[in-house]
Structures are given as structure tokens and as C-alpha cells.
Amino acid sequence: MKEKIDTRTRILDIAEAAVLEKGFEATSIEEIVAGAEISRGGFFYHFKDKNALARAMLERYIEVENALYDDLFARARELNDDPLHCMLIGLKLLAEMLEEMPTGHPGCVIASTAYQDRLFDEGVRNLNRQAILGWRKRFRGMFEDISELYEPREPVNLDALGDMVSGVVEGGLVLQRALREHNNASEQIMLFRTYLKLLFAPR
Amino acid sequence: MKEKIDTRTRILDIAEAAVLEKGFEATSIEEIVAGAEISRGGFFYHFKDKNALARAMLERYIEVENALYDDLFARARELNDDPLHCMLIGLKLLAEMLEEMPTGHPGCVIASTAYQDRLFDEGVRNLNRQAILGWRKRFRGMFEDISELYEPREPVNLDALGDMVSGVVEGGLVLQRALREHNNASEQIMLFRTYLKLLFAPR
DNA sequence: GTGTCAACTGGACTCGCGGTACAGTCGGGA
DNA sequence: TCCCGACTGTACCGCGAGTCCAGTTGACAC
Question: CA at B96, C1' at C11: how many angstroms apart?
């Protein structure tokens, strides 16, 4: 009946919510400790400084995001074995997921950290980099499978095409945040989906 | 022989360079006044606070960016009257321009401000929003002209397609920053270009 | 030549926040 | 019983934003 979540996780939960809402700099340690109902000393017991917090948050975020992609495309795979259709279904699911988020999606931490750069140390920046490279690899692999069966109508660099998935999502989230609209990201994904349909259309 | 640029402009120049390099928060007023060789008092004489600086920077940045697009597509227009080819040439020019920037492009202030949100007041956020809406309108107009001559192979929302130009650029710049690579943005634009070629291909 | 005004300089001060240091408390195993 | 990990609480430092304000300097006005 231990319903008390461990403190470190609680700090991360609260910090994540706050950071996604208003950015890392704008989130003070003061309000995190208030939310988590611990003392400032308690915070620094778990994280030596704000950078350590950022690193832990990013690690967790990337893990969740990857698990989410795993799950999404696994479900897509169950619905259709063909790699192209699997990709198309996966993107549709992703778009739907983004749309269903009532608050209009957390917004990707990657972009946020990328643009605050000097605030973070090498460790954080590297994590960020590795996450994107991981997605590149994942999507590149899927596009390789696809192009074995469907010859692309125009020559494309598969790494760049893999990056485009991340890029379209990131870009969509930026637009969404800046415009205060709520479905730009999912719209952009759907547009990217029609791109793939055209690119890999059977002759 | 007055080679001294007026102080306000000098502040903006220095602030812009610093902000693009390391982000808004990480840029202190101290270093701006040092760079501009004025006193702290002098800074606050021109800008009542950091938010006013942000607003002025955004205004100037958006103006420059718009002038750049005007020029780019005017040149494209000179090379080819057809709206589709004009668009394709313009995007090519844009990609080349991004590639030629030795430091790997300033990186768009829009994304940066979008993700730091609460740091800025309503004025700054609104400027940001208006800039993106302006680009939507500009590109939507171009796509309307195109689709009058070339029926799209798949149904697309032209507003969303207009947003995709901004989104692809923004997303590409995010990747570029995070990966520490230098040509992701231009690569993404070229990929988007092949999308348009496929989408508006004559039957 | 005097006045006025914009464009500053320079210094003193407040406040919030990140970060340090460290002494003390409290509950749960060995 | 003792130890240890997980804290609490407090005092303190430095930095950067922002305020206040008194004083200087140079240009132009009359």
C-alpha cells in the first residue's frame, strides 16, 4: 500500500510538466520543490544541479518516445505486413495520437534544448544528438525495406528521408506552439504521408 | 564620414549575434553592453527591459526574412514564369543559400522563442504568430497559382502545404542545431521540393 | 551665450535564482 | 544498537535583471 512514488521520479514528473509548459529556464527549482513537497536540500540531494535534472529528463523522455514508436509501428505491423503500408499506418496512428492530446501535445524537448544550447553541458547536448540519430536509423531502416519493394519515383537520400520524419514532427510542433493552434503537427505528418504515397507509388 | 552606427542598431546587431549563437536567456545584458561599448544605463535607455529587446529583434528579423523571400522568389520568377517552376527554383535558391552560410545558418528565432514562451510577453508571442501566418499566406498564394495549372495528384490542404514550407525549414534547423551538422535544413528543403514535383506532376 | 533636450555615464541598490555547505533528523535494516 | 540513506532547514555567496537617479556632453535653437 506504498502509494508514495519515489521522490526522484516525483521531481522528474513535476519538472517535466513545468518545462514542457513554459521552458527549462522559466522553471525554477523553487517551484519544483514546492510541487514535489520537498526541501531545496532534497532536490540537490538527487540532482547535483539543474543540468543533471535536464539530463535525467531527456533520458527518460527519449526512452518513452522510443517505446512509443516501438509500440506504434508494432501495432501498424500487425495490421499490415507490407513495409510501405506499415509506415503509412504508423504515421496515421502517430497523427491521431498527436491530435488526441487535449493540451495539444507536450512539445518536443529536443527542439527546446537545441535552441537553448549553451545552457546545457556536453552530456545533455550529446543525448539530444543521439536521440535524433536513433530516429534517423529507425526510419532509414524502414525506408530501406520499403524501397526494396517499391522503387522511388525520384531519387532520395534515405538518411535525409529518415530525418524528415523527425523534422516534420519537430517543425509541426514549433508551428503549433507558435500559432497556438492544435493540429498542425498531425496535419504535417499527414502531408508527409501523402509524400511517401507518391514517392513509393507502384508504376 | 559618420561611420558610427547608431547605438540602438549596434545593440540589436550584437544581441542578435549572441542570441543566435547561444539563446536568449544565455545572453546577458552585461555582455551586450560590453560588446556595444555602452553602459548598462545606456542599454535601458533604449530598451525598457529584455522583452523590449526581444520584440525589436524579432521585428527586425522578420522584416529581413520577408525581404529575403521577396527577393528569392522574384529572382526565381525572372528565371521562369510558370508558378510551379518558380516555386521549385525558389526552393533550390533557398536551399543553396542555407548551405552557403558558413556558420551553418543563424537558426530561426521563431522556434527559439516558441520554446521559451513564458519568458516573453504577449507582444513577442504575437509577433511570432503573425510572422508564421504571413508565410502561410505567402506560400498558400503560390500554391493556389500552381494548383490552377497543375491538378494535385493527391488532395491537399493548401494552408497546411504552405505551413509545410515553414515547418520543413524550422524542423531542418532544429535537426541541424541538435546534430551539429550543417546541411540538414537544405537537404530537407530539397526533399520537400521533390514532394512538390511529385504532387504537381502533369499527368 | 544661454537654455534645452536627447543620449548617454556611473554607481548604488533590490530581488530572485542557482548553487554550496553543512548540521541535524528520522525511519528502516544488519 | 548502530549505521545509513533520504532527507530538512538554514545560512550564505554570486550573478544577472531591473530600478533610480544624479550628473555629463554635444548639438541645435533662439
Answer: 51
Q: Which residue has the cell 555582455?
A: B31
DSSP letters along chain A, please? ---PPPHHHHHHHHHHHHHHHH-STTS-HHHHHHHHT--HHHHHHH-SSHHHHHHHHHHHHHHHHHHHHHHHHHHHHHH--SHHHHHHHHHHHHHHHHHH-TT-----HHHHHHTTGGGS-HHHHHHHHHHHHHHHHHHHHHHHHHHHHS--SS---HHHHHHHHHHHHHHHHHHHHHHT-SSHHHHHHHHHHHHHHHHT---
Q: Which residues of B touch A158 (CB under 8 A)?
A: none
Nearest Cα residue in chain A from B197:
A154
Taken in order of first residue, the domains within chain B and their CATH numbers are 1-47 (1.10.10.60), 54-199 (1.10.357.10)
Number of H helices, E strands in chain B: 9, 0
Contact yes or no for A187 and B119 at CB 8 A: no
Residue B21 CB partners (closer than 8 Å, separation 6+): A118
- Cβ neighbours of A166 in B, within 8 Å: 171, 175
Exposure of B50 in the CB half-sphere (CA atoms within 13 A): 13
All three cell numbers of A16: 517535466
CB within 8 Å of chain B, chain A residues 29-58 = none
Q: Which nucleotides of C are covered by protein (CB under 7 A)?
A: 7-12, 16-23
List b or e across A137-157, with b for residues whose CB sees 16 or more CB atoms inside 10 angstroms: ebbbebbeebbeebebbeebe
CA distances from B122 to A193, B9, B51, B57, B111 (A): 35, 23, 10, 15, 16
Determine the nucleotide nearest to B39 by Cα–C1' distance: C9
pLDDT tens, position by position, for chain A (203 residues)?
334 579 999 999 999 999 888 888 889 999 999 999 999 999 999 999 999 999 999 999 999 999 999 999 999 999 999 999 999 999 999 999 999 986 667 667 788 888 877 788 889 999 999 999 999 999 999 999 999 999 999 999 999 999 999 999 999 999 998 999 989 999 999 999 999 999 999 98
CB contact B99 to A (< 8 Å): no
